[in-house]
Design a protein that fits this description.
This protein has one domain: NAD(P)-binding Rossmann-like Domain (Rossmann fold). It is 44% helix and 15% strand. The protein is built from 7 helices and 7 strands, in the order βαβαβαβαβαβααβ. It has a 7-stranded parallel β-sheet, sandwiched between helices. Helix 1 runs parallel beside helix 2 and helix 4 packs parallel to helix 5. The chain is globular, with a radius of gyration of 17 Å. The protein starts with 7 loop residues before the first strand and ends in a 6-residue tail after the last strand. Bound molecules: NADP nicotinamide-adenine-dinucleotide phosphate (NAP). NADP nicotinamide-adenine-dinucleotide phosphate (NAP) binds next to helix 1 and strand 2.
Length: 247
């Protein structure tokens, strides 16, 4: 029996990048996976097909996580598809770069609406939907939550907020056997970071003791551990998964 057999996992922002890697891994570990996306329907459906061809269970559900009404629909469709929900991976997130002079109110609002407000409201919905036996929430943070990136002030602030929420939500939800765990990637090769190119990645690699950038599978492995029974005594902590970049 695979270690997540019988569990149902929602992975937000799973049509691409780290979220897609997490969805693939949790499905390989036996979970039925909801591949959430906001715009990339083709990519989400392609991932669902890949999971099914490998013998797994998955469905794609469109929902913009920055919109509270759509979070509600995501959970309704998950229950309709798989009957229950046991795991939420709050992965959907955006990052916008620029110096302080170029920052705009809209950019700040966009990043906080998804990375923070969406994460809180998705966790609220999960806490209502989880069975009495409990559940697991994984918050995808960033090394920027503790080591801020110049030119990504608002983004770094959202991830600092995520780390704080991992602690406060773990405190509140622990008595209901709901664990809340943070996973903070270092620079990871995804569609979102592809524009940086080799030149943009070089300074990060130079500061990474293990000498490379991460792959989605590196982050997914940490998430798979966090949601498994082997991770069952961990809550309220954020695991840095960046090859030592933060040191
Ligand atoms: N890549 C890195 O170096 C890195 C490092 C540290 C932390 N992280 C964190 O890891 C997470 C994923 O990053 P990534 O690099 O994999 O991103 P990405 O390649 O840009 O992919 C983003 C994913 O999120 C979805 N998404 C965007 N807006 C959404 C919304 N409003 N509602 C629902 N889904 C939405 C996208 O789906 P659609 O295309 O359908 O909109 C896509 O599947 C983020 O939380 C990010 O902050 C990334």
């Amino acid at each position: 029996m695979a270690k997540l057999d019988g569990r149902v996992a929602i992975v937000t922002g799973a049509s691409k990048g780290i979220g897609a890697g997490i969805a693939l891994r949790l499905a390989a570990d036996g979970a039925s996976v909801v591949v959430n996306y906001s715009r990339s329907a083709d990519a989400a459906e392609h991932l669902v097909t890949t999971i099914k061809r490998a013998g797994g269970h998955a469905t794609a559900v469109q929902a913009d996580i920055s919109q509270p009404d759509q979070i509600k629909v995501l959970f309704e469709k998950t229950t309709a598809a798989f009957g229950h929900v046991d795991i939420l991976v709050n992965n959907a997130g955006i990052y916008e770069f620029g110096d302080l002079a170029s920052i705009t109110p809209d950019s700040i609002d966009r990043q906080f609406a998804l990375n923070v407000k969406g994460l809180i409201l998705a966790t609220q919905a999960a806490a209502q939907a989880f069975p009495a036996t409990g559940g697991v929430v994984v918050n995808i943070s960033s090394g920027a939550g503790v080591t801020p990136i110049a030119q990504a002030q608002a983004y770094s602030a959202t991830k600092g907020a995520v780390d704080n929420l991992t602690r406060s939500l773990a405190l509140e939800l622990g008595p209901r056997k709901i664990r809340v765990v943070g996973v903070a990637p270092g620079l990871t090769a995804t569609e979102g970071t592809s524009g940086m190119g080799e030149e943009g990645a070089a300074p990060f690699i130079a500061r990474t003791p293990l000498g490379r950038i991460g792959q989605p599978a590196d982050i997914a492995a940490a998430v798979a551990f966090a949601v498994s029974d082997e991770g069952g005594w961990i809550t309220g902590e954020t695991l840095q998964v960046g090859g030592g970049l933060r040191l």
